[in-house]
Amino acid sequence: MDALCGSGELGSKFWDSNLSLHTDNPDLTPCFQNSLLAWAPCIYLWAALPCYLLYLRRYHGGYIVLSHLCRLKTVLGALLWCVSWADLFYSFHGLIHGQAPAPIFLVTPLVVGLTMLLATLLIQYERLRGVQSSGVLTVFWFLSVLCAIVPFRSKILSAVAEGRITDPFRFTTFYIHFALLLSALILSCFREKPPLFSPKNVDANPSPETSAGFLSRLTFWWFTKMAILGYRRPLEYGDLWSLNENDRTHVVVTRLLEKWEQQQAARYSTAFKKVSGGEEEVLVGGQARPREPSFLKALVATFGPRYVISSGFKLIQDLLSFVNPQLLSILIQFISNPSAPNWWGFLVAGLMFMCAVAQTVLLNVYYRQIFGEALRLYSAVIGVIYRKALVITNSVKRESTLGEIVNLMSVDSQRLSDVAPFLNLLWSTPLQITLAIYFLWQNLGPSILAGVALMVLLIPLNGAVAMKMRAIQVEQMKLKDARIKLMNEVLGGIKVLKLYAWEPSFLEQVEGIRKDELQLLRKATFLHAISTFTWICTPFLVTLITFWVYVSVDQTNVLDAEKAFVSLTLFNILKMPLSMLPKLISAMVQTSVSLKRIQHFLSQDELDLECVERKTISPGDAITINNGTFTWAQDLPPTLHSLDIQVPKGALVAVVGPVGCGKSSLVSALLGEMEKLEGKVSVKGSVAYVPQQAWIQNATLQENVLFGRALDSKRYQRTLEACALVADLEVLPGGDQTEIGEKGINLSGGQRQRVSLARAVYSDADVFLLDDPLSAVDSHVAKHIFDQVIGPEGVLARKTRVLVTHGISFLPQMDFVIVIADGQVSEFGSYPALLQRNGSFADFICNYAPDEDERQQEDSRTALEDEEVLLVEDTLSNHTDMSEREPVIYEVRKQFMRQLSSMSSDGEGIGRSVSRKRLVSTEKGAPATEAKAKGVLIQEEKEEMGTVKMSVFWTYAKAMGLRTILLICLLHVGQSAATIGANVWLSAWTNEAMVPGTQNNTSLRLGVYASLGILQGLLVLLAALLLALGGVQASRSLHQALLSNSLRAPQSFFDTTPSGRILNRFSKDIYVIDEVLAPTIQMLLDVFFNSICTLVVIVTSTPLFAVVILPLAALYIYVQRFYVATSRQLKRLESVSRSPIYSHFSETVTGASVIRAYGRSQDFVDLGDAKVDINKRSDYAYIISNRWLGIRVEFVGNCVVLFAAFFAVIGRSSLSPGLVGLSVSYALQVTFALNWMVRMMSDLESNIVAVERVKEYTKIETEAPWVVEGRRPPHGWPSQGKVEFQNYSVRYRPGLDLVLKDLSLCVQGGEKVGIVGRTGAGKSSMTLCLFRILEAAGGQISIDGLNVADMGLHDLRSQLTIIPQDPVLFSGTLRMNLDPFGHYSDEEVWRALELSHLRAFVSAQPAGLDFQCSEGGENLSVGQRQLVCLARALLRKSRILVLDEATAAIDLETDDLIQATIRTQFETCTVLTIAHRLNTIMDYTRVLVLDNGTIAEFDSPINLIATRGIFYGMAKDAGLA
Fold first, then answer.
1. What's the rounded Cα separation, in Å, for the pair 967 and 973?
2. 338 vs 739, 991, 1211, CA distance in Å?
């Protein structure tokens, strides 16, 4: 290099340490300046060129028009090139004129000139490729300016020193060159206009990231606008930016699917093997199984490249993290050396700051890349699972339940995306550990092995604690599931619990489970405290052991400041990878399980979408099956075999046969839903399908009917009229804009089926496959639908229709009838032809024909009277009673009657928000009208906005115990003091090393250091244990308050609040309070006191630092407030937008066959992708908000490092090396603590919302007390059973009209009174008032002379008996369902079972009374459940019995049994019966007829019939008068 610089006047040496280092005014030699310093930026640009050109070739941003900015940049580049060439020609000029310049003056201008030319060309090439802001060139100009600063100063200094300019030409060209470089740097910070021919961005709110400048992207400045907006007001969905094209779900899913299909294509390639030497190919499938396609390989192929690029940032950041400890070592050496020039210290401080800033920028850019990629991975996996779920076969559906498939989507794919960002730690942690040990070895020699050994030994300990915690977690989950299941049942049957006064029993059951849960929680929190203790103490113990070994091994080993604090810093770096490694490994194990589950699901068989031929078919036919054999799964016997069917175009075909013969299977075979074993199926044209169980989307009623098609008003109206939906729309609160709940929960069975049919009719398909759509509707409506829609005169008259039906009355109108028996076509032909054949079909028709004729006459008579009214009545389930003389009609309407009876139980439908399977009636106009505007059924849940109120924190603090909190804070203060003490002691110890020779008192020093460290550990442990106990205490008291208040809430609360919303409080919110809040508070306290310690240490070491504390704190708080407000709302938006993904998914899986039949698969895929994208928008913004915060908060931390080092250099004369080491090593840790503190504060705010939500439900208004001491009724009350209503009025809720108006009547003890009236007359309300489910608005009810309003609810309810219309059972033993309190003996229970005709059934069960009833009593028939309710009543045997339409939902036989038992067993009791079938009350003492909440008639049945009033009309309708 010296040769290049030549000799003589212009020549110089390349390096001169006297000039550059050992001086108070440092400078670099002219040779160094002209060579390496000038070449450095050039080397960078040429090195980056190949990769950058490759990137630009693949980058298609469009074409940017030549702007003024671009012209200016190009001109500057050209001028810089000219200046360099001017320098070169000047050197040649000198050479020609005999002044031989040093070779460097020829080489450098040439290199710089070529580089400037390259930069100019790059500016233009970037413009052509559509790059708006160039990072590569910005860095180049920055390096050029940075390297030019040294000669800039140097030339001025030498000119001043010599009093003249030695080389005016080069002096001038250099300053022109510098000015141009500076201009180029400034211009490179501005971005170009968007490309001209770029794809037009149709988004209303595109992400500013794509068009942001290089520096803006580096510092995430482009996010600031959203941070400010989020601070000013809570963010909404409209504020979120759209996703970039490459981040959209459909794009990433397509990429992943491509790679996955490649894996599947390679699946069988290993099964074939070419035999060498032979010509033939041998299939060795017997020996070699096909290779399982690897989903992991597909993921790696899709997302791997970006991971590799991002890992470059991580590698540089990891290497940089070891630079600061070395700089700290130099700084301490500088402080120890009084003769060292001051600029050394300032340079080290500056380098520390620059190194920290570079780390911050690199780490945040890396995290942006890696978390963005994890988000893409998540949406890709979800999308692939969704697409697969649409095509899986039925056998796969049997194997993977809906819950399991949804779990793959919610849990397993989430696990994959959670672990994805940390995969680089697999190579990063070993690298960090190796480097840390290497540098520690350099510092302390082999002594560090002792510390490392301790760290390694602690890994299995932490592993054991983690394993134990996982085992506890599994147990906890089981208990939590049991508690939630029980709560779900309690909320589902809350009305029954209130009527029977059984709440205490269930309260006790829930609290029993909760007690066990809290015991496990306590264990888990103790283990967590232990792991916190090891986490805090490990670095200290490692340091202690290392130092102890170091000073003990050799007397000459002196522990000075440099060794001690550089080692401390390195140990702190080592702490993170060592703690992360075991966590990462356990997360990887969990993820591998998830990966296998997803891979297994994706490898499952798919439906053959080509198995139904759509194009070729014999002329004139719409449907043909030739020799078709079908099965539901390959391992099952065929369901349908040897089918030969031909259906002409436009024919109406009925499919009939006994239950389970394969009628629905035939429809599925035509849809291609079954696996075809042999034969050929052809269906001509588009298909519409109405399944047996209607599938309804969670959308408006109109959207359900249109099903993705454009609205044609005329056709739509015609469809509604034909499907008898017009009357329903008048009833529904929002007409056809009413939102239908999940699974059509707020429609009756009949309405659901009619909407499903309307969807088919509107689709205007060629072939209609109708799987028994008429069974769910009342016979009159069935007739209407058949006539208007399906039949020869209906709207589908010219279409091909295949109708599965049980309705014999429709068969004569059919073109053909297919009779199926045992999976085969037993008969096929027209109706008359089949009757003439005298086969099994003809016999069947003859047996039922008389009944059918009767029914048809009945139907036509009534239909003629007023068909429209009947349709409304079907809608409202509002039928008059039916008598035993009409068994056939009754049988047909049985299903419908169930809906009917379920209506009047909940207070005749008061337009209340529907949370169970009820329908809103029109009795109360006001609320219905209010809701009509919205068309929503349930009020939206209140979402808290803005900051969480202090009262919420106060609630949690009181629940934990204020003393506990105070003690925890004191312990943390003590722990901080002990930490500072230990480090100050270490600092003093290292200063002793200044005394020549060996250190004295090492044992004392070590002893005190160890004591302070152990004290710190113990205080941490105590604080963690206290916090754990406080957390458990808070969990207990908050859950207790929530539970007792919820069970004491009035019935109206449960009617207007969906059970899911209440359940959410018991599951999600209680989980957060149990397991998330306390650890968050623990970490927040740790980092808070850590930060305070750092500031205290730095200020005591360098008091000057106090000057910058305020501005830094202001900046920190400013950034923190912006971040917390924005991130909190983004988190809320993310969680709100997540559940629609899963709802849509489970809805799609349930209705997959309907979606496929209508050919809407792609639309649903697009809809699913859109929902994922909506969720990703908030996720994306949340990721960026974390990076935005990271850059700013870490910048504050880096300033702390800068000022700590800077002030240490300024005050070097008064500072010992130990104090400087202490101060700066603390400062190096503060960045992490400050960043983490904001995150924890934000997490705490997000999670404390759970307390807010629980608190909201502990403040709801409760019903009257269960027991009122001093007003308890006497023992044996009521002895007579006399019930008296005195001017009694009641309303459902304040603000609503009265339901009962001034009711006055007296029922004597032992009387039997029937209560009748139309729906909405107030029948059920009367019984609810008796039990005080509804409280009086005026007047009173007396039983045996006592006002029921004066006594406790349980004293009243436990003395009355009700057999409700909905027989509600709870999961548990039969005995518990009869007698939850255990008041009765086994003999009494058996006696009750005998009287309720259940004894034979229960005796036949192996478990007897301990027979386990499933949830809702699903393993018993409806009739049996009703008999269990009767048994409950028989056990109680109170003087007053209320029957609330108790027999409406059961068959006639059971009804007879119940009526007979009631007549004999309750002979002396007062019986009040709400009757649907008048024949059950014709022998009662009196009948009360209610009309619109008032008494219309009240007399004996005979007298009422004689007066020919309302009751007479009802009896006449029922055929009893």
1. 10
2. 81, 15, 12
Buried b (16+ CB within 10 A) or exposed e, 607-635: beeebbeeeebeeebbbbbeebbbbbbee
| pLDDT for 943 | 53
Task: Give the C-alpha separation, 799 to 792, whole Å.
Answer: 10
Contacting residues for 495 by C-beta, under 8 A, at least 6 apart: 905, 906, 1051, 1054, 1333, 1364, 1368
Is omega for the bond preceding 1278 within 30 degrees of 0, making it cis? yes
The answer, yes or no, to whether residue 1254 has pLDDT greater than 90, is no
Q: For residue 845, give every residue at least 6 positions away whose Cβ sits within 8 Å of its Cβ, in sequence order, or none.
A: 808, 811, 835
What is the three-state SS of 788-837? Answer: HHHCCCCCCCCCEEEEECCCHHHHHHCCEEEEEECCEEEEEECHHHHHHH
Query: What tokens were used for 987?
Result: 């600092």
Mean of per-residue pLDDT scores for the chain: 80
CA atoms of 535 and 458, how far apart (whole Å): 10
First-last CA distance in the chain: 124
Instruction: Please write the tens of the pLDDT for every residue from 970-1004.
Output: 999 998 899 888 888 888 887 775 555 555 677 88
**Element (H or E) spanning 722, and its range?**
helix 713-722
Residues 6+ apart with CB under 8 A from 187: 69, 72, 73, 76
Closest CA to 846 of 855, 856, 857, 836: 836
What confidence score (pLDDT) does residue 351 get?
93
Instruction: Note the pLDDT of residue 744.
Output: 63
Report which residue type is found at 929: T
Cα within 13 Å of Cα(1371), Cβ side: 13
Length of the chain: 1521
Whole-angstrom Cα distance, residue 1436 to residue 610?
63
Whether the per-residue pLDDT at 855 is higher than 70: the answer is no
The more confidently predicted of residues 1446 and 586 is 586
1345 and 1282 in contact (C-beta within 8 Å)? Answer: yes
Count Cβ atoms below 10 Å from residue 398 Cβ, excluding itself: 12
3-class secondary-structure state, position 207? coil
- Name the nearest CA neighbour of 424 among 414, 432, 434: 432
Classify the phi-psi angles of 1437: left when phi > 0, otherwise alpha if psi is within -120 to 50, otherwise beta.
Answer: left
Q: Are 640 and 823 in contact (CB under 8 A)?
A: yes
| Sign, Cα dihedral of 842, 844, 846, 849 | negative
Nearest one of 27, 47, 25 to 37, comparing CA atoms: 27
**Segment 859-895, tens digit of pLDDT:** 443 333 333 333 333 333 333 333 333 333 333 333 3
The whole-angstrom distance between residue 681's C-alpha and the CA centroid of its chain comes to 43
Which tokens in the block code for residue 725? 């939906």
Residue pLDDT, tens place only, 1301-1352: 888 888 888 888 888 877 567 777 888 888 888 888 888 888 888 888 888 8
3-state secondary structure of 1288: strand
Q: Residue 930 — pLDDT band, cuts 50, 70, 90?
A: very low
Side chain identity, residue 350: G
Structure tokens at 1396: 């309720």
Name the β-bridge partners of 1473.
1314, 1443
Q: Dump pLDDT digits (tens) for 1285-1305.
A: 888 888 877 777 788 888 888
The DSSP line for 1487-1505 is EEEEETTEEEEEE-HHHHH
* Chain segment 265-298, per-residue pLDDT in tens: 876 555 444 434 444 444 444 444 566 788 899 9
Q: Is 986 left (phi over 0), alpha (psi -120 to 50) or beta?
A: alpha
Residue 144 clears pLDDT 90, i.e. is over it: yes
CB 1220 within 8 A of CB 335: yes
